[in-house]
Write a structure and sequence with these properties.
The chain is an alpha/beta fold and 592 residues long. It has 21 helices and ten strands.
Length: 592
Amino acid sequence: MKKERKSAVRYFGKVTKDLYTIMPTELSIVILMKLLKSAGAFLQVSVTAMFFDTAARYLEGAAGREELLKWAGLFVLMMGLPWIFDAAEEGLQNIPMFLKHHSLIYRLHNRVTSIPLIRFEEPEFYNEVWRAKMCIYNSGLFHYFFGFIDLLPLILQFAGTIWVIAAFHIYFIPLAMLSLLPSLIVRFRYEKEQYAMRRAQTPLEREKDYLWEVLTGKNLVKELRMMETENYIREKWAKARDQVMDETFRFEMKNANRVLLGDLFKLCGVTASIALSIYLVDKGVISLGQFAACIAAFGSLQFMAESVINLFAYQKGRADFAGDYYDFFENEPEKEEGKKYQGLRDEIEIRNVSFRYPAGEKEALSKVSLRIRKGERVVIVGENGSGKTTLSKIIADIYRPQEGQVLYDGQSADSYERNSFYKKFSVIQQNFVKYQFSVRENIGISMPSQVHNDERLMKSAKAADIEAALKRIGGLDAQLGREFDGADLSGGEWQKLAIARGLNRDADVIILDEPTSALDPLVEYDILTKFLDITKGKTSVIISHRIGLGKFADRIIVMKGGRVAESGTHSQLLASGGEYSRMWHEQARWYQ
């Protein structure tokens, strides 16, 4: 998606406000230093001109030694002051300002976590996050802000240089400007094309980082080693890396040729200035002693003019990168306002709901309608791709349907405050997270305020049948994960731990999305039947491919092709001879 080009100053107000909010004192000190540096820059031009002029007059015998030493001392002082200011400024920026800069990263993270979860199904969303993140990691807002502040000393030096060179002859000024015209065009084109290239490379950069994680991740490395596919993945990573490097190299070489053309024009300008200086000496407009000062002043004017041009061009490019950060915040967050959600009192109603994923060619759910009553234990079954997992996400308001309504006691989730609403749901996903924390944190993270409540944590662990594993590794405070010198669990034990985490949450509605699918069938059956027992009185939804579990449910919902094919009790559905009955007898064959 092509980004609209915008003014270089568009984000200056936002950046200034944000930086001053998080570091007002440090920023004020740096700006004061830059203002002093600006004043020194203006004086530096005048002092340099006087020093060169005095040196020329000294060689002609028209100035004394003391006068020469005075201006030489001032010249050295004015040359050294910028270095002192730069060192102090760098120390301030590299330590306290760098630490406070992380506030911008936290702000970005807060916005990412507030975006509707359906956006995480869109590849372009990940590109947007990547670009916003790289702006902050590369100090893009700092560079953008200080670029404008740095303009002041440059402009003052430029003005001072013009004043000095005009004293020799006014023709030097247009001559210097014309000699820089190609460089001006080259610099602005470079910034525009570089940003376009970086933006286009975003998916490839993300792919390169992903492939590196595949090459170095513990569990992934094991599979790569056993399957002997390390070289294949390494070649894919190297191909992505080389493509980025090759595109960048070709772009820089193309630009280098343009820069060379601009340098030739600058050289022509210097040659013309020498010829003009010789002409002025010949006509008696300037003295022979002023000849060197005139050439030096022209070179300084050319340098200062180019510096101002480059900084303006840089600011245009920096504005685009700053825009990557601020444009991301144009993504609408989920609605935060609303009344407090007090929990389910009556029922959840799915009314004529249809849902399609952003990149999906067909609807994942089509015209689905059903009711789940408070305290009801529901099992949702169906073949892969039938829509059962998508339905569970619709029930928990993780995704919002494009058509139809989801009502909680007759009210839409939009009418409730988001955090209070989600607190009443516990979703245990099939692809759960293995936190490299202590056991206590792995279970208690679902209710951080109760992370030190041992009785509560052990109750959840017992319900998930993970007690034996906890005794083996040392209890609740045992560290998990080899990466941090902790104990490791088997795949099944990790899954039980995830279930314990979900059960620990003080929720009205608990949803299990096949979190036991990799367990031994008998162990899975035991855990899920226990889960149905301990969730009596609570609303629970289990997504499962084990048809036999339906015998213990209050109601079974059978999904097929994104629609509700059947709904009823185990005995009712078997007697009807429909989809559930077919699946029941198909699975029964595996155990006969």
